[in-house]
Amino acid sequence: QVQLVESGGGVVQPGGSLRLSCAASGFTFSSYGMHWVRQAPGKGLEWVAFIRYDGSNKYYADSVKGRFTISRDNSKNTLYLQMNSLRAEDTAVYYCAKDAGYCSSTSCHKGAFDIWGQGTMVTVSS
Amino acid sequence: AIRMTQSPSSLSASTGDRVTITCRASQGISSYLAWYQQKPGKAPKLLIYAASTLQSGVPSRFSGSGSGTDFTLTISCLQSEDFATYYCQQYYSYPQTFGQGTKVEIK
Fold it and tell me: Which of A30, A62, A73, A80 is the most buried (most CB within 10 A)?
């Protein structure tokens, strides 16, 4: 079945690093853009980053720009989020999500987030 | 960044009620608007995309409308499983942004 499974969360000290992974199955991973979205405890959803299906375009939220890097390995059906210089305010559940949009030979079409992983918790604390 | 403002932030309703949640964008986003449902401890679930298109498998009591800056999510006959938090999201431009959420509670 269509599934996204995150891993790599944990407790890290301020200033530390962590790499999250998101394993995809049940769909053609290499054909879709992917996102990371986070949710701080008791708070709403915050979009974090996007990577195009082929890795050619990446976008970041201002709050993580320069500290986080999104990447993907289409041969392994896996999405990554490298998080450096972590701060207390990065504490959150991190979700990966599949973009329902697609690209044809002539254009790309925007999409909502139709598949979500279960989330992985990242806690930044000394 | 485009700001998404939902109202109300919370509401109390009874099973069988008709519920309406509104979402306003700080600038025009055409119909690039989605609605998600989230239950405690769970990932969000896509309900509606393109402002009014029901995601496959979502009950028909959910409906969406609007374009430009003003959007609405309606639950026509609230069921027990609909008590949750609902978020709107614009995917018109980056950074993509979510509304602050509307918690639907049992009266």
Answer: A80
**A126 closest CA partner among A72, A75, A88:** A88
- What distance in Å separates the CA atoms of residue B97 and residue B2, rounded to the nearest whole number? 7
A95 touches chain B (CB under 8 A): yes
Closest among A2, A108, A104 to A50, alpha carbons compared: A108
d(C-alpha B6, C-alpha B31), whole Å:
16
Chain B, 37 to 76: residues with Cβ < 8 Å from chain A are 38, 42-46, 49-50, 55
pLDDT digits (tens, 9 = 90+) for B60-107: 999 999 999 999 999 999 999 999 999 999 999 999 999 999 999 988
Is the Cβ pair B98, A35 closer than 8 Å?
no
Sorted by sequence, the CB contacts under 8 Å of residue A81 that are 6+ apart come out as A19, A20, A22, A36, A48, A49, A68, A69, A70, A94, A96
pLDDT in tens, A19-67: 999 999 999 999 999 999 999 999 999 999 999 999 999 999 999 999 9
* pLDDT of B57 strictly over 80: yes
In the DSSP assignment, the letter for residue A26 is S
Mutate to test the interface with B, among A47, A99, A120 (most CBs of B within 10 A): A47
